[in-house]
Automatic annotation (TrEMBL):
It comes from Halanaerobium congolense. The keyword Cell division does not apply. PROSITE patterns: 4FE4S_FER_1, 4FE4S_FER_2. Coiled coil: none annotated. Residues 220-251, 302-330 form the 4Fe-4S ferredoxin-type domain. It comes from the Bacteria. This is Anaerobic sulfite reductase subunit A. GO terms for molecular function: iron-sulfur cluster binding; metal ion binding. Keywords: Iron, Iron-sulfur, Metal-binding. The lineage of its organism: Bacteria, Bacillati, Bacillota, Clostridia, Halanaerobiales.
């Protein structure tokens, strides 16, 4: 059963949910964009439906809620360690299907990529509920349909929302929320609606035939183009909802040099120092090599290990690149090269 609610009633529910959950959604921050006169669309806490920016794509995704930019792992003192304490927060995240599918990629990376689960990711991830926003039109740079990430399954969300002029139509798929918050659902207007998903983006990407990718493809001159254009700023990494690399550092506290903490923070494969090893050797000095590494990871290696590609086609990397490097165009060029036999 699905329901219709007025905006006022839904906002009332949100304010009740706020007692237990931190509610995140894409919002507009005026004059906080790249230039002072530009607005920044990003994830932040909301109070009500009017806070949600539905008409523009967010520059950043919601990944930092479960994978913080900087996260303390443990504290140490005099040879003893103590795992960083866990906060009590629970989260509701409003997001589009591609971004929900990006969390599936993060789950694979942090929870199913070897014998051990990432306990830090897991303890945050377990406290997240997803409210999926119906998305039927997308944005100019999206290519989610090509990446097969334009749709979600019923099990992927706690609620699925269609925004109407005068209210919300929603599917509720979460017993905990039903029991604790949506207790008067029987008084809501009952409807049946079929979730709609975008079926065609303006941008289409042809994925390369993985069986035809040879070593020659890795050495193709395609990648040298990016050595000339990419400035290794790493914006594409930070805005990507599936980039999940991090580096680990120790800091010692001033008062007692035997005490300190170990933390991790985001790292990006495009940024200088990402592959630096003891002795100063670096594997991918050329920026084009970094582009090749990222591309192959997003649309080749990851799928060799798991069942789907890592890239969800959100197009954020295209939106943020100061050098107008287009990842979707790169994939299409790569596919052509692969088809032509490198
Ligand atoms: S690689 Fe680009 S298009 Fe793909 S998920 Fe990351 S930001 Fe989105
Ligand atoms: S955003 Fe563009 S210039 Fe910056 S690292 Fe990525 S591809 Fe290179």
């Amino acid at each position: 059963m699905d329901y219709n609610l007025s905006k006022e009633k839904f906002n009332q529910l949100l304010s009740e949910l706020k007692q237990e959950y931190q509610i995140y959604a894409p919002v507009r921050k005026e004059n906080k964009g790249t230039y002072s006169a530009n607005d920044l669309i990003t994830y932040d806490l909301i109070d009500n439906l009017d806070d949600i920016e539905l008409n523009k794509k967010s520059k950043y995704s919601a990944k930092e809620i479960v994978f913080p930019i900087r996260e303390t792992l443990f504290h140490f003192m005099d040879g003893e360690q103590k795992m960083a304490s866990e906060d009590e927060e629970k989260y509701i995240i409003f997001l589009r299907p591609c971004d929900r599918n990006a969390f599936k990629r993060l789950d694979k990376i942090f929870l199913e990529n070897g014998p051990e689960e990432d306990i830090y990711y897991k303890r945050l991830r377990e406290k997240v509920k997803f409210f999926v926003i119906e998305c039927t039109e997308g944005f100019d740079s999206c290519f989610c349909v090509s990446m097969d990430s334009n749709e979600v399954e019923r099990d992927d969300y706690s609620a699925f929302l269609r925004f109407r002029e005068d209210g919300i139509s929603f599917k509720l798929n979460d017993q905990e929320l039903k029991n604790n918050y949506f207790t008067d659902v029987n008084d809501f207007e009952k409807i049946n609606f079929e979730a709609q998903f975008i079926q065609e983006n303006k941008i289409k990407v042809n994925l390369p035939d993985k069986d035809k990718i040879t070593n020659e493809v890795f050495e193709n001159e395609l990648w040298t183009e990016y050595s000339e254009r990419c400035i290794a700023c790493g914006r594409c990494n930070t805005s990507c909802p599936t980039c999940s690399c991090f580096t680990v550092k120790d800091v010692l506290y001033d008062e007692n040099k035997k005490s300190g903490e170990r933390f991790r923070r985001w790292a990006g494969c495009h940024i200088d120092g990402f592959t630096e090893m003891a002795g100063g050797h670096s594997f991918r000095e050329e920026h084009g090599d970094r582009m090749r590494y990222k591309t192959m990871h997003k649309i080749y290696d990851f799928a060799e290990r798991f069942d789907f590609d890592m890239c969800v086609g959100c197009g954020r990397c295209d939106d943020v690149c100061p050098e107008y490097i287009s990842f979707s165009k790169c994939i299409n060029k790569l596919s052509q090269i692969v088809e032509e036999g490198a």
